[in-house]
Fold this protein.
Amino acid sequence: MASNQKVSEALEHIEKAEKSLKTSFFKWTPDFDSAAHEYEKAAVCYKNAKSPADARKMYIKAADCHRNCQALFHAAKDYKQAGFICKDLKKYDECVDLIRKAAFMYREHGAPDTAAITLEKAAKTMETVNTNVAVDLYMEAADIVMVDERLRQAVDSLSKASRLLVRNRDFQKALEVMKKELDMYVELEQEGKIHKCIAIQILIHLHRGDWVAADQAHKTAMGYIGYAQSEVSLLLQELIEAYDQQDPDKASELLYNPYFTHLDNDYVKLARTLRVPGYGGGGAGGGGGGGEQQEEEDEYAGGLC
């Protein structure tokens, strides 16, 4: 009963909105502002009536009206509302499209922080649905705030993107993103983050069977703040040497180090599946090739836990 009442109220608001959009001999231009507010009221009624698909349509109509009268911030809010309704309806492609529209509107209005936060929320939603899309959204969020030199916010988005790329075993792209990430940490003088970024890069190189790149990354890092004197530097040097000397026992001991086990879960998995070439066995030191193909065949085998 209450649901039917809300639907009736929604229809009344829609009728008022459509009336506001009509022109006549004495009214030459549509009243987009009034129509937008009526469509928003209709959307709320549909939400209360448990009719999300209709609410989505009303928010989109409201957003379009706001755009027509250059109320970009309000347009962005309505596109965002419609986008997250699509998420609940599992219409993920439309959700992402609408969220991107919202972010564009926020940015045009002069609110890049809000645009980036909106993209990040959508990216978080997409992590378990489509990680490639999630990565793209995190990168777009970083690009927006990077232009305005908000490095802390930008690097936070980049770190989420690189983590997902590692999860997907897209190591080449992960390294490219982490290079940008590392440069920002250096500029921000975040010593712990710099060391962590280097450690993950070295793990990736070793996963790819590229001892030379791992060693070079370690040597280059000696020029970064505090790295040469850090325990992380010594740990990584020993790991690179164990890999070079094909010593799985030593590598396994090092990969059990709390520094690795306390990383984000995706990086813990990266460490526990690292194999030293030339030996049979599971991860965390033992193994045959150390390359990407083997990891795909035996993902997360063996381990630190």
About this structure: Residues 8 and 45 are 9 Å apart (CA to CA).
